[in-house]
Design goal:
The protein is 70% helix and 0% strand. It contains 10 helices and no strands. It starts with 8 loop residues before the first helix and ends with a helix. The protein is mainly alpha-helical and 199 residues long.
Length: 199
């Protein structure tokens, strides 16, 4: 079950008034004067942040908690944002990345009961066997991605979890667009080889 991240409707409605088509950079400037404008930034980027963090965590709840922490830190640190290097989405996902790294360090060596959730309670599945197979396939894919190493796993999570372009991913991980594209290409080829098997 994917947990949806929401702000109270009043905050979002107040933020929407005339600001829906405004650029991220303009909204950041507006938020510095009126924090309620942050609701639009939140609404625009919440799913990308959540999806990225879901690719980095073991449960929906952990991803939702880290997403909330990400937006809390972003709002508190908005004065440090500079519109360059991928813009607001890249800056926001760097915050999410740091939150995920911090959480992984704290949780190293522990396993959550949520790890067993797909097997114990198949989400919206009528067929428990199919849900168990799907959970096993996802676990296998996660293991293969982790074996690629941190830069590749990170780039894949940002590409397919957050939907960022190579340029935006490069801004998050500190690489050029060309180097990022090379990391993505090599990671995808390595995964193809794993699933293709020996010739």
């Amino acid at each position: 079950m994917q947990q949806e991240l929401v702000l109270p409707a009043g905050q979002i409605d107040a933020g929407r008034a005339g600001l829906a088509d405004v650029s991220d950079d303009a909204l950041v400037a507006r938020t510095r004067a009126d924090p309620s404008a942050f609701a639009i930034l939140y609404e625009r980027h919440r799913l990308a942040v959540y999806r990225y963090l879901r690719a980095r965590t073991r449960s929906d709840d952990a991803a939702a908690d880290l997403a909330a922490l990400t937006f809390e830190r972003a709002l508190a640190g908005l004065d440090r944002f500079r519109p360059s290097g991928g813009g607001f989405p890249a800056w926001l996902l760097r915050i999410a990345r740091n939150a995920a790294i911090d959480a992984a360090r704290r949780d190293r060596g522990t396993r959550s009961l949520d790890d067993l959730a797909p097997l114990a309670q198949p989400a919206a599945a009528d067929d428990p066997e199919a849900a168990a197979v799907r959970a096993a396939e996802l676990d296998e894919l996660r293991r293969h991605v982790r074996r690629l190493g941190e830069p590749a796993a990170e780039a894949l999570a940002l590409r397919y979890g957050a939907g960022l372009s190579a340029r935006e991913i490069g801004a998050v991980i500190g690489k050029s667009e060309a180097a990022t594209q090379k990391v993505l290409s090599r990671a995808l080829e390595a995964l193809r080889e794993v699933y293709r098997g020996p010739a």
